[in-house]
Design goal:
By secondary structure, the protein is mainly α. The chain is built from four helices and no strands. It is globular.
């Protein structure tokens, strides 16, 4: 897959340009720009962003389960008192 950091870098740049402290502070135009940046990440990796919604959904599910036990995800569940989902 594509390294997560490639997407995070683009996200951070968009947030900085928008003077957004939090992800939710981004406006519609910012999010549209972010989508275009994410497509560029795919192209830089020699891949085309999937246009098939089922392919997108499959990739999303795979990403969620693939990141389930990362330190960030574990900490999020701990902070938000999310327990016993599996």
């Amino acid at each position: 897959g594509i390294p997560h950091e490639d997407f995070e870098k683009r996200f951070d740049i968009i947030k900085e340009e928008a003077n957004a402290s939090n992800d939710v502070d981004l406006g519609v135009a910012d999010l549209k720009k972010l989508c275009e940046e994410y497509k560029k990440v795919y192209l830089e990796q020699g891949k085309k962003f999937p246009s098939d919604p089922y392919e997108q959904l499959h990739a999303c599910v795979k990403a969620v389960f693939g990141s389930w036990m990362t330190p960030r995800a574990v900490k999020y569940r701990e902070i938000n008192n999310v327990k016993s989902l599996l």
